Amino acid sequence: MHEYSLASAIVEQVKDIVQQNNANKVKKINVTAGPYEMVIPDLLKDAYGIITSELEKFKGSTLELEILPAKINCLECEYTGEPDKEGDQEFAFNFKCPHCGSRDTHLKIQYLTIETVDLEIPDEVTSA
Amino acid sequence: MSPEKKITVKKQAYTVNDELADEIRFLMKEKKKLFFNIMGSVGAGKTLLLENLAQRLSKYHRIFVINGDIATTIDSDRIAQHGVKTVQINTGGGCHLNANLIHKELNKINLDNYDIFFAENVGNLICPAAWDIGAQLNVVVVSITEGEYVIKKHPIIFKNAEIAIINKCDLDGLGFDSDILVEDASKIKSSMKIIRTSAKTGTGVEELIAALGIKVPKGEEYA
Q: What is residue B163's three-state secondary structure?
């Protein structure tokens, strides 16, 4: 539901990166997010397309979203990492700690993160 | 062909929200204020519960309530009748409150004039779970009329909340069963504080006040 504002936040940050690097064009932006951040990949791409359609330096660029594996914090033994694969038949997301077996676990928030940006740099900048 | 360059960024897209949320939390702690995020479905009874809290607490504490809704000032008007200060945020199409909206409202007031802050989030069991608003405690209100599977269907918001309120318990046994929701809330998080309430009759409100860590003068808990 909030993919449009997330896409705008990405574009705003990348605009700054373009300026800092005196880049001509943005080629590709790679972003990651955890599986429970409520980001729908297709909606994010659509929103990105709409926002960047009027931006010269973003024309033809792509946005790649990688959904990361779930991570938990165990409240019993302080383990942080991927949960036990077993899951819970009764409760979705009620993950088990692979270390101590407890289900007293918190989902670790893995917010949408800009990982890398591929830019096209004019010749004079790189040779200078 | 122009050369290309890969820039490593490793930065959250929405850093603004979390930085602001942390700033709000820090400020509240420093000034010794309490700030609660009240979440729950449309019709769960969040506003009536807040009316109950306002009625009982306004004698002893200075309270500020921020109401989030798509439209209207119905909720803030209702709560303001109980002698507390309220402000309504209309999110337009927004399905949740965020730290920026809270920060803007807090900037308009002098925090020193209040002791306890409540944010009544937009009625929704999905999106508010993913947006930190800087509260010290996240509270989810769920009513027994929402169906016995409501917690199972919306696990994330419960998983990451500290208090679950099972509301409309005056209807318990009349075709609705609070035990199922209490059991599910404790299964999904063993450290969850679970409180049965009826915002209609006022049952459980004192217990809720205690769970929130709000002090009232001794012997006047039922005032």
A: strand
